[in-house]
Every structure is written in C-alpha cells, then in structure tokens.
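Collaboration report, partner site 2.

Our partner group contributed sequences for two proteins of shared interest, and the home lab folded both. The records are reproduced in the order in which they were received, starting with the first partner submission.
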Amino acid sequence: MRVMLPALFASVLLATAPAFAAPCASLTALKLPATTITAAGIVAAGAFRPPASQSAAPPAGEPSAFEHLPAFCRVQGVIAPLSDSHIEFEVWMPVSGWNGKFLAVGNGGFAGDIFYSEMIAPLLRGYATASTDAGHEGSPFDSSFAVGHPEKWIDWAYRAVHRMTVQSKAIILAYYRNAPRFSYWSGCSTGGRQGLAEAQQFPRDFNGIIAGAAGNNATHFYAALLNDYEVAHQGAKSFPPPDKLRLLHAAALKACDALDGVTDGVIEDPERCHLDLQALECRAGDRPDCLTAAQLETVRTFYGPLRNSRTHAILYPGLMPGSELGWSAGPVNKAYSAGILGNVVFQDPHWDYRALPIDQIVARADRSELALLNDTDPNLRPFFAHGGKLIQYHGWADPDISPLNSVNYYRSVARAMGGMNRISSDYRLFMVPGMSHCTGGDGTDQFEAPMLTALDQWVEHGRAPDRIIASRIRDGRVDRTRPLCPYPEVAVYKGSGSTNVAANFACRRAR
C-alpha cells in the first residue's frame, strides 16, 4: 500500500525522513500477516558486526567493509505462512539520507543465511535494503533441507523472496511514514534466478531488476554439471591438471583473443571463437605440453552442450573458450549436483547417480519439484506493462553456469515478444568478456554501482543503458575500463588511444 501525499509535502518528507520516522525499536510491535518482528533497533555508524557465517563475509579485499556503514535501523523478522515455513529476513534502513528507494538483494547457492555482505553497497548508497535466508539454515552447498520438507523447498524456490519483499515494503512504510518510491532487486547466480522468478511470477514486486549469471534452467543445469563430473572421472587422469588447463587457456587466447582487434588477454566475443582441439592432442604418451585422448574428451564435454542421446536435442549449453582456468570437477561439484538431484528429484540423500542414464535423470527432474526452479517463462509482458525494467548480465568466462544459458533466455523472450528491437526498451542483456562466475577473471568485473545507476536512470527517467562502464582492479587500483554493451553488440576498439580506457571503444553489432 502506498501512502498518497501531495508532491511538495512528499519531497520534504523524503529530504528530512528522520524527523518524521517512527522509532526503530517500536517496529517490534508492527503487525504483519504471518510475520513476527523478532528484533528492531538502531545500529550506530560502524558498529555492525555480522554473525560468523559463510555468507556474512565482506567482499574480497574489504575486510572492514561493515565498519564503513552509516547508522541504520535494523529489523529482524520471521515469516511463517505455513507450519513448515520459517523464513528469516532482515531490513536495514538508513537513519539519515534515505534516497526514498528500496533495493533487495539475492542469495547464492542454496542460500541458508542472510547475505549480509550484499547489503553493504545498497545501504552505503542510501537505499533501504533487505535479505532473506530463503526459508532454511545451512550451507549454500547443502540441499538436504528439501528432503521431506516440500514447503521449505517452495520457500527457497520463490515464496521467501516474494514474502520478504512485501513485508519489507510494509516495514519501510511504518518506519519512514512513506513507502519507497521505487523498488529494485539485485542478485547473481541464485540471486539472478530469484530476480527472473520475481519478474515472471510477481511482476509488480519490483520496478527494476538486475539478474546476473542466472541459473534459471535448473533441472538441465544440474544434470549437465553431473554429466561433466562423470566424464571427468572416467579415468584416473581424465580431468586435465592445473598446468594443462593453463595450456588450454593459452591456446584459446592464441586462437581468439585478437579477433576483436585488441590482444589483451580477454576473449571479447567467444561465440566467434573456434579452437582446434585436435592440435593439442598428445601423439606419444602423456606429456606436459599436450592433452591425452581422455583429457580431450573431458574438454569437449565441458565445451560442448549436453544432448539427448536419442534425439540429439540440446538440453543445456556448454562453457565458453576463456573459462578454462576456473574449471573444476571436484567433490563439491558432485555434492552440489548429485545432492540436489537426489534430495529433490528422488527424495533420497543416498541416491546413486550412476543408476540411470543422464537422459532419464533429466526427464525425471523435469517432472519433479526441482522444476520449480526452471524460471524460463519468456512472457515478461506483465512485468513490462507496469514499467518494469530488466538488466541481465553474465560473464563470458563463467566456469559454473553457462553464459549461453543467459543468451538463450534473452533470445527466447525476444522470440516470444516480437524481436530484440521490441524488447530493448524494457530488457537488455550485458555479457562481460573475461569475467568468471559473478566476479573475478581477467575481464572488467567491477560494475555494480554503474549498473545500478543505469537501472535507476532507466526506471525513473526512461533512459535505456546503451553502455555500462566496467573496471578491472589490480593491486588495489583500476588498471582498465571497458564498456559493457547490450547484446548482441560488443566493444570495438576505435583504433587510437589506450586499449585500457573505455572511451576508446564503441559498442557495435558484430553479428
């Protein structure tokens, strides 16, 4: 519910919010549907210390990031719409300098915790912000919470984020005496999928959504991850060791780095890259400067799509050239993929993933509760109809979730809604050359603030982003900037000036 105020009075209220705000501690008495406010109080500037948890750690290189936070009203709550639901969430609201907006943040992996580290940047920029544990406690790599608890699974799939969003807005209204003028979502990986789920299922929750590296074709993604693991472990030395992954990565750069006219250690457009793997095969035994036949089979599996063995239809796309240094086939990959398939599809924590061929596993998964995570509906008309804007991004060098998964979803929306030109006023995809999963890699992976500013401008002023400037940080300083371009455009060097300066590149359609 939005409080309707005269425009002049509303602007004064926003500028002097603390003078009109309700006492933070009084929010414990707030009555909300199926919700209990367990604690509320002012946190002094620099005083917040998160609990010891995997998701509470501040961003890499910022060990004291929480110490920079301004004073804020911290509200903790539990939402329990059903007897087996227990959704913990927090809302942080600046004591002063609120910009009148709300920005909720997403989770990673299987969630299981409040993602405090993701709440830092929004609060520093003046947003009220919120995060949820998605309905359970545990490691982001542990899906055992789903066994025998279908309602907790639904909470994690979509209900927790939606309920958190609705209740957070009510809390913001109670504290500031004014509802947020605009509401945004930002998340990567699981958080990206959560953002797409919101756009598809609850189109009026947010005015703008940033969805990064979304694992939204979940049943096929987990099957592909499991298939990669199986192939990589067919023999004792089937998976290339680190030195051979470096060899493979160097070969990919040699073949494709210069295709954009700039040799900079990053493949700008991997869709144009063609790597001759046969030239890397060992001719006489296993040597450090080549790959064995078994290792090449693993490489082809990682690069190639997962296909139906009977129809040869593509079930899930492969990884891209440039991602090799992040490849892994360790026990975490097995636990992550086989774990969720066993826990959710077969409801058996001891399920033997070798008991069925991969085609049958995919078919069973598509008919199971795991399909609740397949947020692939291309009909975004209800979201766009009320002015909703969607920015999606994905690193081309992502070694976990295939970047082509995001490309495929973007194309499916374009097909369903009349073409790329028809959706460009509401939805844009930005591919990030050289970036790994959500961050990292050799590319320009720092763009959180410019992307949020771009979304703000798009939602509030109708200015669609034609480029987003990203940075790369080395040894604590920015050593490169580049424009991220709306797909299918790519950054093209203008021919003069430093190749480490974004102004010397233009966004042009390359295909």
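Second partner submission, folded after the first:
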Amino acid sequence: MIKVTKLKYLGGHRIRFWFSDDSTGELDFSKIVAEPGEMIVPLRDSAFFAQAFLEFGAPTWPNGYDISPGALFLEMKEAGLVRREEVV
C-alpha cells in the first residue's frame, strides 16, 4: 500500500508529495477546492490549505478532510505527474 511520506506546500493550492515508492510529484488542487461541499469550503482559503499535514500517510487538513494516498498516487500517475526521485 502506497503512502505519502512527505508533503510541502508550494503556494496557492499546490502541494508537492513524496511517496513511499520513492516517487514524487506536484498537484494543483484548484479544481478540487472549487467543487461544492462543506468539507471543501475551508480549503479555498490558501492560508488554511497551507496547514496540510500527514496522518497515517494521508494528506489531511485541520477540519478532518483527508485524501486517500493510494487514490492520490493513482490520479497523479495517470496524469503523468509522478516521477522517480534521482538518487545521488
């Protein structure tokens, strides 16, 4: 099962993720936060969005909204947004 091992807020609604298979990628959540939903509304504020943290390998926000790390990885991989980390 794939997990997010690290995340970094990049500004706006963008986050870079590092996954347990040594891959990384960046995702812009602008379309997601534009969707309706009580849990999504707070994420529209970039200051709140920036408070993302990991809980058991899942990106999570203070209001309890979280994203399945496996689904996140598959979505990003299918969109060509995931690449392997270069080991130097």
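Feedback sent to the partner group on the second submission included the following. DSSP finds three helices and six strands in the chain. Residues 27 and 53 are 15 Å apart (CA to CA).
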